[in-house]
Amino acid sequence: MRTNRRSAATVSPATTVRNLGILAHVDAGKTTITERILFATGAIHKRGEVHDGTTVTDYDAQERDRGITIFAAAVSCTWDGHRVNLIDTPGHVDFSDEVERSLRVLDGAVAVFDAVAGVEPQSESVWRQADRHGVPRIAFVNKLDRAGADLDTAVASIRARLGTVPLVVQLPIGSEDAFTGVVDLLGMRALIWQAGRDTYETGPVPEPLREEAGRRRRLLEEAVAELDADALEEFCATSALTERTLLRGLRAVTLRGDGVVVLCGSAYKNRGVEPLLDAVLAYLPSPADMPPVRGTADGAQVERAPDPAEPFAALAFKVTATPTGRLTHLRVYAGTLRKGESVLDAGTGRTERVGRILRVQADRHEEREEAVAGDIVAVVGVKAARAGTTLCAPGAPLVLEPPSVADPVVSVAVEARRSGDTGRLSSALARLAEEDPSLVVRSEAETGQTVLSGLGELHLEVAVEKIRSGHGVEVVVGRPQVSYRETVVRGVTGLVHRHVKQDGGAGQFAHVVIDVEPLEEGVTGFEFRSAVVGGRVPQEYARAVEAGCRDALAEGPLGGFPVTGLRVTLTDGATHSKDSSELAFRAAGRFALREALRRSTVELLEPVAEVTVTVPQDSVGAVLGDLAARRGRVSGSTSRSGTAVVTAAVPLGELFGYASRLRGRTQGRGTFTTRQAGLAPVPPSVAGTLLAR
């Protein structure tokens, strides 16, 4: 019988640390897997359950009430002599920014898939996020004990929807309720979890599965040989691969991102968790395997190796307020940080003292004397740092690239129910925006209203509830409004603008000529180019023109919405020996683009969500009709286990209140999930109504 390998790692953290995240669609089992990992490693002694509200990482009251992960939570444990720092990330689309900030500081990830549903919409979204960050992954197909579970179908969806090569290293023993273990295709052995036991027993491959296991082992060898040069050499020489070569080849393929190792199990029944931990150590990188982190110092590129002896450098990726103080969560990339030392906030130039260093276990903390390269910790005493702030040694400044922040797509007006709470509301909103950069607070100049913007209706609901429960402020909330954008359909060329201002003393003079054109279809954002030759507009003035153009993007000519999806090219200009300045050229750029937008053909854009609706077969007609009434465009419909799964692109503004409508049309049996699908033009008939408001 195999025993748990609970241990305390004392070896160099550069090679014996794994920093990983758990990624998946909502309800795929991320939090349950995290809970089982903590139990298997001895970090906890009683398994918690999501439905009971007793898990370690879903510690917030709203998470327990709603039964979903809302906030990324870090935990730490040891397995086989290695320290595993793990972040359980949200699976709901409204909290994708939490995933983004986590991926920025992680070295690897475990992507979890439902064995019945396969790759779901948010599974695909977080996979693409991990692609952008170059994070190596392994996959875990969960819930093999469910009715309709099928490993091969789930793997086929990974291949088709994610565009990667799945390398399946396990074969299930039994199916659905009879699922009892897996065949390890590398060691060609069976791992069996007996009823009521927390660990597995090792035995020979069951006779009925030997032929199938041999066939799959052969397919695995061929796949690895195709992807790894060293494995191919051995395969050509011997027509087979040893377990050691397979292990080495799978690790190399994983680190390069050429394929994904696939394991399987049932986290709820505690089957498959220990082999998953072994795979984390075997295939995912340690901080020592990662390239030196790159940053800038005085305009030059600087590298820092993951070495405790290097100058200290860390990135703050999360800020939380607790009853005992403000916690700043850090990923230490280089150097050593000791309690009581001073660090430099590279963005502001402010020096702050670190009062305490904590190893985080969700909402519990273990104090430490120091943190070294590769660690993920929280510190107390740093007052001004925000998510994305670089903290470094005062004598060796460095600025690391911060995680990107998604643009808000939904807004609500909020005000205190009692006038005496206005100040407390302002303080609560400022604290929310500090903890979650994807929440934006602004004041409407015309109405005087305070507007809170976020990534979705649920995102704002959670934020408002935090104000009520966490800060004791009763608020009145307006109807959600989506964030529209304007874009250029047909631009202008050769627009000339002269900015001349003379009011005594030094004047202002700037002469610019610009072209405005739309970006490629489906591309958002803003691009600026300077095509001026002969030094007619110096480079510093060209940068000022770009800054002025960005100022003009704040309000478009149709309805005053932000403008996106255009390219501005500075083609010519002129300066004055005395009156030209960066201020003058910035003003010229702002006024020139405003005029160009008025002369261009501009259309209104609205955020669109990809909606996946799962309903009984007898409700499909009603659901399709309702989606059509919401201007939804159905892109697919499939049948699965007596239910229909409908996929459609629906304007986000039409989805407010959809949950209650769907429950009513399906007698409470219908469910839906969404993921952001970018921006789409608003039909002219609808745009006219919106702009007339």
UniProtKB/TrEMBL annotation:
GO terms for cellular component: cytoplasm. It comes from the Bacteria. GTP binds at residues 24-31, 88-92, 142-145. It is found in: Cytoplasm. Keywords: Cytoplasm, Elongation factor, GTP-binding, Nucleotide-binding, Protein biosynthesis. CDD domains: EF-G, EFG_III, EFG_mtEFG1_IV, EFG_mtEFG_C, EFG_mtEFG_II. Catalyzes the GTP-dependent ribosomal translocation step during translation elongation. During this step, the ribosome changes from the pre-translocational (PRE) to the post-translocational (POST) state as the newly formed A-site-bound peptidyl-tRNA and P-site-bound deacylated tRNA move to the P and E sites, respectively. Catalyzes the coordinated movement of the two tRNA molecules, the mRNA and conformational changes in the ribosome. Pfam families: EFG_C (PF00679), EFG_III (PF14492), EFG_IV (PF03764), GTP_EFTU (PF00009), GTP_EFTU_D2 (PF03144). SMART domains: EFG_C (SM00838), EFG_IV (SM00889). Belongs to the TRAFAC class translation factor GTPase superfamily. Classic translation factor GTPase family. EF-G/EF-2 subfamily. One of its GO terms (biological process) is ribosome disassembly. Residues 15-288 form the Tr-type G domain. This is Elongation factor G. NCBIfam families: EF-G, PRK12740.1-5, small_GTP. GO terms for molecular function: GTP binding; GTPase activity; translation elongation factor activity. It comes from Streptomyces subrutilus.
